[in-house]
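Hi P.,

Sorry for the delay on this. The queue was packed all week, but I finally got your sequence through. Input first:
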Amino acid sequence: MVHGGSRTAALSLRTAGAALAALTAAGCGGGAVATPKITTTVKAGVAPVPPAKGAYFGAWAPTVEDGGASYPGPSASASASPSAGGVPGQKPEKAGTGGMAAVLGFERQLGRKLDIAQTYHSWKSEFPDATDKEILAGDRYLLLTWAGADTKEIVSGKHDALLRERARAVRATGKPVFLRWQRGMDTTGRQAKVHSPADFIAAWKHVRAVFAGERADNVAWVWCPTAGGFSPGTAQSFYPGDDQVDWLCADAQPGSTYEYRDISETLEMFLEWARQRPRPIMIAEFGVPQSYGERRAEWLRKAARTLQDPQVKAVVYFNSDEQAEDRRDKRRSYTVNGDKRAVSALRELATVPYFNPRNLPVTSG
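Then the structure:
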């Protein structure tokens, strides 16, 4: 039996212990982050699965015509670099054409090969296209970002023939593919076609069911709203369910209304929500605005620490200016080309062991 001051002391200890456990679970003050056990519904070797440790590093590196940057040509020693040939002594990789040339140019800056190369496709465009095929011909994963159509039309079956054709094309590659369908479904600009969370969820399930019917088992389904949509509680309402999603995802540009904003602030609400889900996380679009100037390198180094999160299993840099309204719009321009400090900091991030889980060779730079 506990009496008087002893009882008070015991209650205080229990309360303090509970508070400490809560702080630790929340990762407060540098404590351990409470991460759910990560599971997947896809088969290893058939569709992309998360690495056992660390996170894949990837990028969207478009051509100049598509809003990307120009890249210096390969040096005389390029045949010994990861982007040109993988490992010294092995047959060099072909120079690449179109979008693949931009990927190889970006890799030369980083001093390593990408784990993931991203491409974008409109709803009616055929894929895999030439760039997709070049990506799949190597040992990179393809992150295929595919736009949507009117969700009500999809559910009605109006687009089933197109869906079956795309599913068969992806299955025919015989390679693991990340499929990010109708990203940013939570944004106001998408609502004319998305209509409502219920309509989106019904369409997502329909698209996935058609792919399953065509035995496109090499697809990992990536559900990807904006990180900013989690603060008002909008993005969460579009979630189809754990049984329908293989990878949780968010696009994490800081937003044009901020003079400066760390990625930890951008991702805070998304990561808090994701802790309740047993799925790996992909950050499919993140980038540091050119408007941050001399602070771009600082931003990237802080991002490297934030993204070394045990549930984050893939990060994809958005090396593009295509979202800028014009050439003066530096708040929506994310290319690092020509910014030596930013390139160096991004290279540091890309070559941290956490973001190189396949232990790809890294060149000196």
